[in-house]
Design a protein that fits this description.
With about 130 residues, the protein is mainly beta. The protein has a single domain (about 5-125), classed as Sandwich (Immunoglobulin-like), CATH 2.60.40.10. The protein contains no helices and ten strands. The strands form three sheets. A five-stranded mixed β-sheet has the order 4-10-9-6-7, with no helix packed on it. Strands 1-5-8 form a three-stranded antiparallel β-sheet, with no helix packed on it. β2 (about 15-20) and β3 (about 25-30) form a beta hairpin. The protein is globular and about 45 Å long. It starts with 6 loop residues before the first strand and ends with a strand. The relative contact order is 0.28.
Length: about 130
């Protein structure tokens, strides 16, 4: 049996994802890397967190995505299961994020974990 650690191939925030019914291809709409607001707290009504994973062993797995201004204030925003057919499969996870509130401007930390193992730590800049 092969021991593999899941790998993040793609992590993007966007306004929407269209999946072509004939080909299965994903089209990402409105990709962005920062959020701007005039008043705080700011509530962003809707976004997609698009994630592609590889090297995930066959079976059920759990993804968790947390966000906070610093590591002591991290809040779990997404905690769900997904299936893998095996480590050679590329898994596209489309995660709806609704009414996400940012109390102040800053660089918010985002941590992505699979099976409680951190795979990616990045930031989202929220500016005025």
């Amino acid at each position: 049996m092969m021991n593999t650690k899941p790998q993040v191939l793609c992590w993007l925030m966007c306004d929407g994802v269209h999946i072509d019914p004939a080909t299965g291809k994903h089209t990402l709409l409105g990709v962005f890397s920062a959020i701007r607001g005039r008043q705080f707290p700011l509530t962003h009504p809707f976004m997609i967190w698009f994630l592609t994973l590889s090297d995930v062993p066959a079976g059920k797995h759990k993804i968790r995505i947390s966000l906070g201004l610093d590591h002591s204030s991290m809040n779990v925003l997404l905690d769900r299961e997904f299936d893998s057919q095996g480590p050679l499969q590329r898994i596209n996870l489309i995660n709806d994020v609704r009414n996400l509130t940012f109390p102040a401007v800053g660089d918010y930390s985002i941590v992505i974990e699979v099976n409680e193992e951190p795979l990616l730590a990045t930031t989202l800049t929220v500016a005025s």
